[in-house]
Design a protein that fits this description.
Elements lengths: L10 E4 L2 E7 L18 E5 L1 E2 H4 L11 E10 L7 E6 L2 E2 L1 E6 L2 E6 L6 E4 L8 E10 L13 H6 L20 E2 L3 E6 L3 E13 L2 E11 L5 E7 L5 E4 L8 E6 L13 E9 L2 E10 L4 E4 L2 E4 L2 E2 L2 E5 L13 H13 L4 E3 L7 H10 L2 E5 L12 H18 L5 E5 L16 H16 L5 E2 L2 E2 L8 H4 L3 E4 L11 H19 L3 E5 L18 H16 L4 E7 L4 E2 L9 E2 L12 H9 L8
Helix pairs in contact: 3-4, 5-6, 8-9, 9-10
Bound molecules: (2S,3S,4S,5R)-3,4,5-trihydroxy-6-oxo-oxane-2-carboxylic acid.
(2S,3S,4S,5R)-3,4,5-trihydroxy-6-oxo-oxane-2-carboxylic acid binds next to loops.
């Protein structure tokens, strides 16, 4: 799936800003044909979640259906083109109508919903887009949903959150990423996949595969352009196959220290004329696990970073570019080199920026806290489809070095998970992911409750663990916490002989709260816990990284253990540094291991 671009053959029109909005808690909109437009005097900004924007209308914790509508003028020059509509993400599911005709739907939040609208759209006229968005989830969806009844029936009332979720982040609803109408020629490039490798220390290899729609072409070409605009390698335009290999001499490989990007131009030709062209930035690099090491271009890399969230005041989960810039500046400031897109794929704009800035990314599918007592064949099917779409979307980003295809399965600690059903499930999802991409390691972070018997370890290339000793277990007791952490790491490594990544560890701290003793919730306790974890993690030769939970405080569903936000951020929600941020900056100085 390609990000829309503008060039001599393609155009884009962003349909963001203010949309008309209406809540449909009774789900009557389709019967009443709201897709032909509906009455409302409420407006909402796109991208952005409805929760905090429209809190005063009672939407802070709203889970249900809502409708968006927007009129827009489609320029006349779109008339001889194919026209597409792409919603960067509408969470968690959406249905779309253009000028009253049903155009498409998606059950996959956090990913683009793209559809062809050539037959519905009217160039040179005003058009109407209506989108219904729901943030409801169920047993079949990825992530899975939960209801208040589940908690009661399972006698887990003390775990109940409001709204009920299986995860610890707000189930924000809304259109969260840009809505773009774009055009392509009748015969067009619809997919490009790039595999890069190092032929020798001076030479890079780029294998390109393209997918097209339409038959009106007789050749395909590709060309790599360097930062100065000079051509560094090109295929012969006679190439009919949609597959080609380019060799780059004097190659500048992409790495976190030197995130060198080339522009790849691919084109279709007919009778000697170009009929479509697509361009994207690529980085030439190789990722590999060798024994207990993670290698980038053959050199060991140790991940120092965070689990993050797409979360900010008012805009909620909406893409907010100033925040993307700020977060990357803060990651550079603190000497981090990586982050995990916990617990869902982030906006493509974020990944492109990571490519530019040389920040390494673990891209995650939102199969968070799967409860195997409620997993259905449809859950598995949705999980596979989700991974397929995520891999397709993010494949070409050099920054993406690891796939995480879930997080903390069996957080409820159910025995049934170990009877082979959990293993079969994960085998299938891992095998499937590997069949889509065998160039990157695949992992699933494990939680303490699922234990070291968790079947995800058998299939993971990197063993990822989330540990909260010193917080949820052994609160306030850092000595015991570190002993437990060390035991887990040693046993895990002895059993599986694979590298270990600590994908989560941390403590809540209330900015401004201090103590001279070890006292939970103070900035000192958070900083000390992080420092002790890092000392232990870095003392082990088989660890490949440490990711602090979390980069910034973030909003969660209501629960007695959360004071509005999860406070494990080393930055506050508005990005002010806590004590732990200064500690990390010092510990991560120059990207060297300090212990
Ligand atoms: C976890 C989860 C994460 C939570 C975190 C916490 O294990 O993966 O989503 O936010 O713990 O703070 O409890």
């Amino acid at each position: 799936m390609l990000y829309p671009i503008r060039n001599a053959f393609r155009d884009i029109l962003e349909i963001n800003s203010l949309w008309k909005f209406r809540v449909d808690s009774e789900k009557k909109g389709e019967n009443e044909k709201w897709y032909n437009d509906f009455e409302s005097d409420i407006e909402i900004a796109v991208p952005g979640s409805w929760n905090e924007q429209l809190e005063e209308l009672g939407l802070l914790h709203y889970v249900g259906l809502a409708w968006y509508s927007r009129k827009f003028f489609l320029p006349t020059h779109f008339s001889d083109k194919r026209i597409w509509l792409r919603i960067g993400s509408a969470d968690f599911s959406s249905r779309v109508w253009v000028n009253g005709s049903f155009a498409g739907e998606s059950e996959f939040g956090f990913l683009p919903n793209e559809m062809e609208i050539t037959t519905f759209a009217r160039a040179g006229q005003e058009n109407l887009i209506v989108i219904s968005v729901s943030n409801e989830l169920d047993d079949d969806s990825i992530p899975q949903g939960i209801t208040a009844d589940h908690y009661t029936n399972e006698n887990r009332m003390r775990e109940e959150t409001n709204p009920p979720t299986r995860f610890d982040f707000s189930p924000f609803g809304g259109i969260h990423r840009p809505v773009i109408v774009h055009s392509t020629p009748a015969t067009c490039i619809r997919g490009v996949r790039v595999n890069t490798s190092i032929a020798n220390s001076l030479t890079g290899k780029v294998e390109i595969t393209a997918e097209t729609d339409g038959k009106e072409f007789d050749s395909f070409s590709s060309e790599l352009i360097d930062a100065k605009g000079a051509s560094v390698s090109r295929s012969s335009p006679e190439e009919v196959a949609l597959r080609t290999e380019l060799i780059v001499n004097d190659c500048h490989f992409w790495s976190n220290d030197n995130p060198h990007l080339y522009t790849l131009n691919v084109a279709l030709h007919k009778d000697g004329k170009t009929v479509d062209q697509y361009s994207l930035k690529i980085g030439i690099r190789e990722v590999r696990i060798d024994g207990d090491k993670l290698l980038l271009n053959g050199k060991e890399v140790f991940l120092k970073g965070f689990g993050k969230h797409e979360d900010f005041a008012v805009i909620g989960r909406g893409l907010f570019l100033p925040l993307v810039i700020k977060d990357f500046e803060l990651m550079k400031w603190i000497n981090a080199n990586s982050f995990r897109t916990s617990h869902y794929p982030y906006a493509e704009e974020v990944l492109s920026y990571a490519d530019n800035r040389g920040i390494l990314v673990i891209s995650e599918a939102p199969a968070v806290s799967l409860d195997f007592r409620h997993v259905t064949p449809k859950t598995l099917e949705n999980h596979r489809q989700f991974v397929q779409r995520m891999v397709e979307r993010d494949y070409n980003h050099p920054s993406v070095i690891i796939w995480s295809i879930g997080n903390e399965p069996n957080i409820v600690g159910d025995e049934g998970y170990y009877d082979g059903s959990g293993r079969n499930y994960w085998k299938e999802v891992f095998d499937f992911t590997r069949s889509l991409d065998n160039s990157r390691p695949i992992t699933v972070p494990n939680c303490t409750r699922a234990g070291l018997e968790d079947p995800v370890f058998e299939f993971s290339g990197v063993l990822s663990i989330n540990r909260y000793y010193g917080w949820y277990e052994y609160p306030g007791n850092l000595k015991l916490a570190i002993e437990k952490l060390e035991l887990d790491m040693e046993e895990l490594h002895a059993r599986y002989k694979k590298p270990i990544l600590i994908t989560e560890f941390g403590a809540d701290s209330l900015a401004g709260s201090h103590s001279t003793s070890l006292q939970m919730f103070t900035e000192e306790y958070q900083a000390k816990l992080i420092e002790e974890y890092i000392r232990c993690i870095e003392s082990k030769p088989y660890t490949i990284g440490e990711m602090v939970w979390n980069f910034a405080d973030f909003r969660t569903p209501q629960h007695f253990r959360r004071v509005v936000l999860n406070l494990k951020g080393v930055f506050t929600r508005d990005r002010e540094p806590k004590l732990a941020a200064f500690k990390l900056k010092e510990l991560w100085n120059n990207g060297r291991k300090v212990f």
